[in-house]
Amino acid sequence: MINKGIPIIDLTHGIPPQDIRQAARVIGNNYRYFPPGTVHVCVVDPGVGTNRRIIALQCDTLFFIGPDNGVFTQLLNSSESVDVYQVENQKLFLKNVSKTFHGRDIMAPVAARLASGMSIVHVGPRIARDACALISLRDPIVKRDGIAGEVISVDSFGNLRTNITKAHLSRVDLGEKPCVTLRSYAIGFSSGSYEDVSDTLPTAIINSSGELEVCVKKGNAARLLRAGRGERVFVHGHRSGCQDADLAI
């Protein structure tokens, strides 16, 4: 036990196994909501036991520990100042390090010491930010008259979360009533909350992460539309037959 007084928040265990891309999005969308001094341990690590590096990052007053496999892509691509260190000080690890669980044997002990006040410089040598692994997050295609994106995840409610964001929508003139098309279904757009949409019909809204999301308030959009990750999604200006909160079948 290094410090039993450290509060622990389990942000999510809902990332599909080995899905580095989705883990990178979750980190990028949520880290700013945590208080100064927070240490984020990110264990989506299909390369565990190989020669992939473990890295620790300091971004202002926040710390991050995880594999150097692209999971920190959004953080490393940001305009913020980020210092990166290679985690290799074995004195900080558990005595017996397994080949299959570095999250427990290396990352968690180092995180506990950082959270207890240890300087990040003790984890190992500093490395160049641009030497870290990055992955493509497949941004949507934005054109003058619309946006082409895709479903990036399906949450436990069956909501279809896309890689189209509020920022992308602001770059296109879609008029007052944009329309979303997914698998030949024309879906209306609501600028409100879940309370403002139909109980049983799919509607597109902007979720808490600023993403375009297709939801059914009292149903399951993924099941109803028979759609999942990778499904193409299009946003365009209002067209005939695409009415608010209406599903054209």
TrEMBL record:
<dbReference type="Pfam" id="PF01887">
    <property type="entry name" value="SAM_HAT_N"/>
</dbReference>
<dbReference type="InterPro" id="IPR023228">
    <property type="entry name" value="SAM_OH_AdoTrfase_N_sf"/>
</dbReference>
<keyword id="KW-0949">S-adenosyl-L-methionine</keyword>
<dbReference type="Pfam" id="PF20257">
    <property type="entry name" value="SAM_HAT_C"/>
</dbReference>
<dbReference type="InterPro" id="IPR002747">
    <property type="entry name" value="SAM_OH_AdoTrfase"/>
</dbReference>
<feature type="domain" description="S-adenosyl-l-methionine hydroxide adenosyltransferase C-terminal">
    <location>
        <begin position="149"/>
        <end position="233"/>
    </location>
</feature>
<feature type="domain" description="S-adenosyl-l-methionine hydroxide adenosyltransferase N-terminal">
    <location>
        <begin position="2"/>
        <end position="124"/>
    </location>
</feature>
<comment type="similarity">
    <text>Belongs to the SAM hydrolase / SAM-dependent halogenase family.</text>
</comment>
<dbReference type="InterPro" id="IPR046470">
    <property type="entry name" value="SAM_HAT_C"/>
</dbReference>
<protein>
    <recommendedName>
        <fullName>SAM-dependent chlorinase/fluorinase</fullName>
    </recommendedName>
</protein>
<dbReference type="InterPro" id="IPR046469">
    <property type="entry name" value="SAM_HAT_N"/>
</dbReference>
<dbReference type="InterPro" id="IPR023227">
    <property type="entry name" value="SAM_OH_AdoTrfase_C_sf"/>
</dbReference>
